[in-house]
Here is the input.
Amino acid sequence: MQCTKKLYLDLNTDINPWTNNLNRSLNKNIMMDYVKDYFVTKLGNINLKQIFDKDEFLDNINNENNFISFGLNLKFDDLSIKYDVITKVDNVINIYLAKSAIYTKTYYIKELTLQKYLINKLTDVPTISNLILINNDYEFTKSDINLDKYLNFVECESRINNEDFIEVENNLKNIRKEITKIKTPEIEIGSHCKNPYQCNYFDHCRINMPYYHVEQIPNQSKDQKQKINALGIKDIAKLPEINWLSDIQNRTVTSVKNSKAYIKPTLGSTLAKLKFPLYFMDFETIISPLPIFPNSFPFQPLPCMWSLHKLDNKGENLSYYNFYDLSGNDPRKDFIIKLIDILGKSGDILIYSDYEKRILHQIILSYPELKKDIENIISRCVDMLKLVRENYYHPGFRGSFSLKSVSKILPDGDIYNSEYVNSGDDASMVLMQLITGKIKKESISIYEQELINYAEKDTLNLVNLYNHLISVI
Here is the structure.
């Protein structure tokens, strides 16, 4: 249970929460198709009976029959759980929890613990808990997936013990208690708001907080959070003098208290070193555990789209270029060839974070014949995120240096106001669905245009940020 307040809001309010990444659900559904194929092939020779409900589960347990089930829903008292895969072979039950991920995470083990807890309430047949993950070293080819190598089975039984079942019992008691409450629990915001995922009610719970809440002090360690909470002050502007904050944290607090932007004296000389023409560049990628293009790997960022503004001289001749290929064909070679052509041999390339540089290094591995040209691009990249973090802070950032947050203080204001694409995650999801044909034909043109508009906004924001920094020096 991530938070008792979240549970209460889920059960008792009509609030429309923010929705988590839809790609995660899509990936899980497709992965389960692979998992079913694997088990049908591997266990078909044993003539396992397939079962579909709790009564069949108990009947076959009592009759000592072997069986397999996909998506079985089991209940005990008021607890109901849907299982990805359950098998019973030779008087041993195996639970399989499938995750479109590479590594075992703590909350996966907690989920398995809850699943085993319920089965142990229904039967005393020995139960083994397993994860089904994805092998990120598996290379996709044009042929069918080799499920033996693509799926990674991890036995987790040694990580579950009786103390874990006691924790489950206590959590269930707390949940039953919370369900009976008649008002929203008062829960302080904290690290649980983003663990294991950002809560759907993240923004809702911050509606009545001070505009400059102490949560916005960046890069807080656990010890610092405890010290700040101990002060009992939620508004940054009301904090006393604190001598144990880092430079960037002090910069944030001072800027808020003075209602004034922090400008490092060397910002002007740093900007003066930039070489024209200036390019403002952003990539859009898809990252999928599933096969999208041949000669790629699970979770490999696959660049499908770039956006580029070009400023020939200071304040003059702004032009725009882009590339995208939504046909479903592998766009990577055209992506880099056309980028090399537009960028030429000189001029600094402004990016936000080093993500584009990492993608370019990866592209070299796929197209070594273009190494020299790609390395020229990499050598010209200037990270504006690093530049801003080291030289500038505005209270309007509210502790975040994301481009979306930084853009809110620019003259054009917040321009991320589209219906479908307002973030990198949105863009990745729409790219994935367009390329794999998951969007209805009549909606394709709408989503395409939103995606194109979003990409242009991102690099236009880089231009606006550059102009803003020039204006304050």
Q: What stands out?
A: The first strand starts at residue 49 and ends at 50. Residues 209-258 form one domain. The two ends are 49 Å apart (CA to CA).
